[in-house]
Amino acid sequence: MNMDQQQSLAVPSRRRLLGAAGTGLGLLALPGLLQAEGADGGDSPLSLKSPQQSARAKHVVHIYLNGGPSQVDTWDYKPELTKWGGKRLPVGNLTTERETGVALASPFRFEQYGDSGLWCSDVFQKTARWHADRICVIRSMFANTPNHEQSMRLMNTGSERLSRPSYGSWLTYGLGCENQNLPGFVTLCPGLPVADSSNWRSAFLPGIYQGTWLDTRKTSPVELIANIRNPQTPPAEQRRQLDLLQRVNRRHQQSRQEDATLEARIQSFELAYRMQMQATDALDISGESRAIHELYQTDTVHGRQLLTARRLIERGVRVVQCYHGDVQPWDSHGNIAGEHARLGREADGPIAAFLTDLAQRGLLDETLVLCGGEFGRTPAVEMPIGGGVPTGRDHNHHGFSVWLAGGGVRGGLAYGSTDEFGYRAVEDRVHVHDLHATMLHLMGFDHERLTYHHSGRDFRLTDVHGRVVHEILA
Question: What is the rounded CA–CA span in Å between residue 17 and residue 11?
Fold first, then answer.
């Protein structure tokens, strides 16, 4: 059933109908009712909602390169860095976390790709070769601090230190979910990154909008979501138990109408029950063709994650995050030549496959794809603590790159620039707040008007900052 068909149905609330029909008949009708309820504006907080303005995208997939990839070794070609390799940079000492030394020339080969002539190193050769004219690289990103925890929270929630809702939570709060049997916001990550669940939590928004974390080191659908199946209790019995529990909760809620925590708990019980119907199907990639498995390289964690992301957005999930690695694997303080080459081999092919697959299925136009980390790395070499040969780069929040594709973004574009060595964003600078404002705009929201009243004032993802970067829009 497509969305237009769903919206044309006039279906009463799930609870009213189940209460009238009795447990047995209600259970038989449940799957269809749940699908319809979200579309006709029923009582679920994940029910479909209209955006504030015309939207270019319906979904977001964030490929998070965890740890801070080096912009000058990937998408930001700096010939001057090669000329100054092994020498002290004329700009003087670079302000960052650790002591830095001489310029470190990139060990990677850069080429221009596509009709647009977009520059990229061989770390992401396949992605650039196949999709340069679909990608917009923002080469002038900047953040506030050179620390992983703060910068990851900023990239994900718009706030470095305070517990604020993630952008995925804001989008599901604003738009709901097309599929009431799946979460609106899913995070695929092999283990936990630094700052762990604060990267996808809902904070003061209702808990139903929090990201659902799946540990993708596991491969079986029944392992990815703990307790997705209850072998001891048949579905009909589960439904009876849940109906009883929900009636008690609703009675308790009558005297606590403003208790968002209780409402979130009620809705999470409902969603957990519904997920038994579709979550295992969405997460089971075994039925995909051999060609698809080879394309995505599903013998790798990242390949499985990105194929799963495609299956989730096909089924109506609003926001999917795919972390490449746990903790901070792109954090190449040493041996950047070997480490970035290895990481590129892991991520490049699956990313190129994902964009190809979305384009072939007609999903890329409605899906905003974002790829990057929380900051970049210094053009100067990091001096190892205790001596040794310096071979890596330190954190750099002053200038870094992310790229976007699909969902209303201009392809084949390099927007903004860093200085001649790739240290600081100098032209058309884009803060993380500006990136968030632009993402919300593409999803149909004015970032100043998507607000939630909490603690006596209205909050928003971009706090009191941000501008839409109209120059990168198609």
Answer: 9
